[in-house]
Amino acid sequence: MKKKILGFTLIEMLVVLAVIGIIIGIVLVNYQKGKKQYELQMAKQRIISEIRRAQNMSLGAVEFKGEVPKGGFGISFDKTTPSYYYVFADKDEEKDYDGTSELVKEVYLPSKIEVSSLSENGGDVLYLDIVFLPPDPKTYVNAGENEGVITIKHEDTGNTLDIKITKGGVIE
């Protein structure tokens, strides 16, 4: 009588381990891609939050250095400094960022995320200043009643996301 041997052969074990290894590799690659897309989405949400914050500070007549800025509050992007942007108080009512005397806050984007392009009414621009003039708040993009688009990019993947500000102050 032959004795039955139960178990797996070495080849069967190697095949199973190879399949498991391939599955783990696929999962890890997709996890990294998903993580980078999540980082980009979170950076977009943070920018939108800061734009809304400037809008709310204009509506709420928030004081800056002891007085309510007559020109409201805004946010400034510059392509020459793609890793950060400014929240500012428009004290001189010129509807643009004039430097440190108006600086409320400097906001850094997460690592590997940068502003890749700025546009006003469909044309590329070097800088984009978005100002909310109280009490409405009326929205100005580069001192005019324009629409603006901020495009951010993840350096590793090249993926981009757009943030659009309409003439009416709607952020999309």
List keywords for this structure.
172 residues; alpha+beta; minor pseudopilin epsh fold; rod-shaped; four-stranded antiparallel sheet; 1 helix; five-stranded antiparallel sheet
What does this protein structure show overall?
This protein has 172 residues and is α+β, with helices and mostly antiparallel strands. It has one domain: minor pseudopilin epsh fold. It is 29% helix and 30% strand. It has 1 helix and 9 strands; from the N terminus they run αβββββββββ. The protein has one helix at residues 10-59; strands spanning 73-78, 84-89, 103-108, 113-120, 123-124, 127-133, 138-141, 148-154, 160-165. Strands 3-2-1-6-7 form a 5-stranded antiparallel sheet, covered by helices on one side. A 4-stranded antiparallel sheet has the order 5-4-8-9, covered by helices on one side. The chain is rod-shaped, with a radius of gyration of 25 Å.
Question: Helices and strands in order, then pairings?
Answer:
Layout: H1 10-59, E1 73-78, E2 84-89, E3 103-108, E4 113-120, E5 123-124, E6 127-133, E7 138-141, E8 148-154, E9 160-165
Antiparallel strand pairs: 1-2, 1-6, 2-3, 4-5, 4-8, 6-7, 8-9
- CATH class designation: Alpha Beta
- Please identify the structural class as seen in this structure: alpha+beta
Q: Mean pLDDT, as a whole number? A: 90
- Form type: rod-shaped
Largest sheet, strands/sense/barrel: 5 strands, antiparallel
The count of strands amounts to: 9
Q: How many structurally independent domains?
A: 1
Distance between the termini: 78 Å
Strand order of the largest sheet: 3-2-1-6-7
Query: How much is the radius of gyration in Å?
Result: 25 Å
